[in-house]
Backbone:
């Protein structure tokens, strides 16, 4: 048996013995394994699974073993993912530390910082949030104004971050701060801040769709040790950009909200609402709109496949990748508008007895979907990127 | 499912691209139009197309073709679409060859297929009877008479109708309009008694004709395929035709997009390159997205044909509908973004606009295919 085959066999055995049964069932939102100092485990198996996987470094399978990572090769990682999928195992740890900060620390942080922060991330002991956007710095993120003043033995941080997901539940925040006000991109630094520090306050933001994980985070005279600076002073923008790349892959990996799937598909909902003639949706304009939407979805799916095949076959990074976020989010928004057309006033409930949970979920998802074309780079910014980098259109 | 070309397919693409760019550029099409060519195509160029093996791409080697298959035909059609190359490729090498291969008996196949591959026979499918594609609504009748049949009625929008040597006519031999059962196909000599062909001058200057059949006498062996049983094979070949038209349309939108983008980078007004205006950047980026989407659906359609997948009808309707929408947008934007010169005959963009709308009506427009896609989806 080859080494990889041995690895697979051993992995399979270990998973069989160590993945609790309840960790092989669909994961409800309240059981998401975020970890952190104040982690709650309504299901104790979640903690068990997290501890067992992190002890092996398998919460971060490809990170270096010297920091507690799994140290697996690409091939071994693929095998692990297949074996986990085979038993439908839940992720043992979900964390911005794993997805965004960790890879950036491995690339840019000092040895001491890696030794301090990476193991905590891997074990799920520290829960991280991202302090990037500000009320005055969204699309123009580099225009951020939260200041970190050099006070000799520490930085004094003042400012406000917005759209910080889960800040009210997080332990630490990785923050973009301004350390030089005379230049724009070259005056930004990357600072790690303990949320428990005096002067840090997080307040949840209510959205048009109701409660959300987003927060405003206020920083008032917050003292941050100098060793919390990652990379060089005023060279934080490079790290920020790398992190945004990780964030964008994370967003494309996530699902796109409740929809018709749980109700048997858009066509089933349309038939229920409009009746059928010869088994076809009786309202021709709705039938046409449903077909048009499903065509867009199928065409988009084919384009994702094609890009993946092009990448695999070494025919180079296709230009199509730059359109994914734009096209996918706009299709998703249209999907919910069409569901509203189909469901009529039953898709317009807010709460209470007149509406079932699936209907209410559609309404909330419709509202939440408006944010998809704004977060992670607005549609307008995506079009600008396509125009500049793919089409080569000149700057003004 | 292969959405990426193999090395062999890429070589075919390069060869076809070079051929059409050098031997059949848009100026060739203009010449045919301006000189009011009676054939509507250049026989020298067609001869070269035949010599390159393009006419026999769908035809097996044993019958004189190259057997490259539908993906190969799609690749060639796309390159032909880029330069508005007018040739019998679609009507003869796609539909004609496709129908004879699907429905022909051994005698018909061994007689006709080598001639198609060798460029010695031109064919045309006479199917349409109204302004909108609706094959099951065929009501023109073929009545049994003795051992053979008598054909009477009118067909319209017959692509290559006036240059064809042999027509394939779809007629009803039993049942009523709308029935899938009861359709038959007949091989009819274009010069037969009672066949009256009138060329129609279309906005895209490509070959189409109206044909009337006045008691045309057909022998028993003119039947192509089973009596009353044409529909399954006909529908399969129509799907191949749809995907090949979609491929040709893809070539057209690629040319319009590329030339429009070039114009945005060159044209100056108000002291600046107009491509610096954000509104135009965004519209160009949206067109880019449409082109990428269309490449995916066309490639998937061609793959489905190559692999004989059982979702060919769905793939064909997806490709045709989607490309019709994209071609409308891009051809319109092509004119608009060129400003005043976009309205001149001298600029090629207008030629592509006209061609795109005719292609849209061939074998079912976007609305036809959305309805069919919904049928196939069970809703």
Residues:
């Amino acid at each position: 048996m080859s080494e990889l085959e041995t690895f697979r066999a051993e992995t399979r055995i270990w998973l069989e013995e160590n993945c609790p049964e309840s960790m092989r069932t669909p994961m409800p939102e309240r059981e998401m394994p975020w970890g952190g100092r104040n982690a709650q485990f309504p299901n104790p198996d979640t903690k068990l699974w997290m501890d067992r996987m992190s002890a092996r470094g398998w919460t971060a399978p490809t990170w270096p073993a010297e920091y507690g990572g799994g140290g697996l090769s690409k091939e071994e990682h693929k095998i692990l993912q297949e074996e986990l999928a085979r038993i439908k195992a839940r992720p043992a740890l979900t964390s911005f530390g794993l997805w965004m900060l960790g890879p950036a620390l491995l690339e840019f942080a000092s040895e001491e910082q890696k030794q301090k922060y990476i193991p905590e991330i891997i074990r799920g002991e520290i829960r991280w949030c991202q302090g990037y956007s500000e009320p005055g710095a969204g699309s123009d993120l580099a225009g951020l104004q939260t200041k970190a003043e050099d006070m000799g033995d520490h930085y004094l941080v003042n400012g406000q971050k917005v759209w910080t997901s889960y800040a009210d539940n997080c332990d630490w925040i990785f923050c973009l701060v301004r350390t030089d006000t005379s230049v724009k991109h070259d005056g930004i630094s990357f600072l790690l801040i303990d949320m428990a520090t005096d002067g840090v306050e997080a307040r949840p933001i209510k959205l048009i769709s109701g409660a959300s994980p987003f927060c405003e985070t206020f920083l008032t005279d917050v003292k941050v040790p100098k060793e919390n600076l990652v990379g060089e002073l005023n060279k934080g923008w490079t790290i920020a950009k790398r992190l945004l790349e990780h964030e964008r892959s994370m967003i494309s990996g996530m699902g796109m909200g409740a929809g018709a799937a749980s109700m048997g598909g858009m066509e089933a909902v349309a038939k229920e609402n409009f009746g059928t003639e010869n088994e076809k949706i009786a309202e021709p304009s709705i039938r046409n709109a449903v077909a048009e939407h499903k065509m867009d979805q199928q065409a988009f799916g084919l384009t994702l496949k094609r890009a993946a095949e092009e990448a695999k076959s070494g025919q180079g990074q296709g230009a199509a990748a730059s359109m994914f976020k734009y096209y996918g989010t706009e299709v998703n928004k249209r999907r919910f508008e069409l569901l509203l057309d189909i469901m009529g006033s039953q898709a317009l409930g807010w709460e209470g007895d007149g509406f079932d949970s699936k209907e209410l979920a559609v309404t909330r998802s419709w509202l939440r979907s408006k944010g998809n074309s704004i977060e992670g780079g607005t549609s307008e910014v995506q079009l600008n990127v396509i125009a500049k980098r793919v089409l080569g259109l000149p700057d003004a | 499912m292969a959405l990426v070309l193999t090395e062999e397919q890429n070589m075919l693409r390069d060869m076809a691209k070079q051929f059409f760019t050098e031997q059949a550029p848009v100026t060739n099409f203009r010449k045919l139009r301006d000189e009011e060519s009676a054939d509507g195509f250049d026989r020298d160029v067609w001869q070269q197309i035949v010599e390159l093996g393009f006419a026999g791409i769908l035809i097996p080697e044993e019958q004189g073709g190259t057997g490259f298959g539908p993906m190969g035909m799609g690749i060639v059609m796309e390159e032909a679409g880029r330069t508005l190359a007018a040739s019998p490729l679609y009507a003869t090498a796609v539909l004609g060859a496709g129908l004879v291969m699907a429905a022909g008996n051994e005698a018909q196949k061994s007689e006709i297929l080598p001639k198609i591959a060798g460029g010695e026979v031109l064919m045309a499918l006479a199917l349409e009877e109204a302004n909108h594609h609706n094959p099951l609504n065929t009501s023109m009748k073929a009545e049994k008479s003795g051992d053979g049949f008598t054909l009477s009625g009118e067909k319209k929008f017959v692509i290559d109708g006036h240059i064809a040597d042999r027509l394939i006519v779809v007629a009803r031999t039993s049942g009523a309009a709308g029935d899938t059962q009861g359709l038959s196909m007949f091989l009819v000599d274009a010069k037969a008694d009672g066949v009256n062909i009138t060329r129609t001058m279309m906005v895209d200057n490509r070959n189409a004709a109206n044909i009337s059949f006045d008691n045309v006498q057909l022998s028993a062996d003119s039947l192509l395929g089973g009596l009353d049983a044409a529909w399954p094979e006909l529908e399969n070949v129509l799907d191949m035709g749809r995907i090949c038209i979609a491929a040709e349309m893809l070539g057209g939108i690629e040319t319009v997009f590329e030339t429009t983008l070039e114009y945005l980078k060159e044209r100056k007004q108000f002291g600046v390159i107009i491509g610096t205006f954000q509104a135009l950047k965004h519209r160009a980026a949206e067109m880019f997205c449409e082109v990428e989407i269309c490449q995916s659906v066309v490639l998937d359609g061609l793959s489905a044909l190559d692999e004989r997948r059982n979702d060919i009808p769905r793939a064909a309707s997806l490709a045709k509908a989607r490309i019709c929408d994209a071609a409308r947008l891009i051809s319109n934007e092509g004119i608009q973004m060129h400003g005043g010169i976009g309205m001149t005959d001298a600029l090629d963009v207008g030629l592509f606009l006209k061609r795109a709308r005719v292609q849209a009506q061939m074998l079912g427009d976007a609305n036809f295919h959305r309805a069919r896609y919904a049928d196939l989806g069970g809703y």
About this structure: Residues 231-266 of chain B form the longest helix (36 residues). The mean pLDDT of chain B is 97.
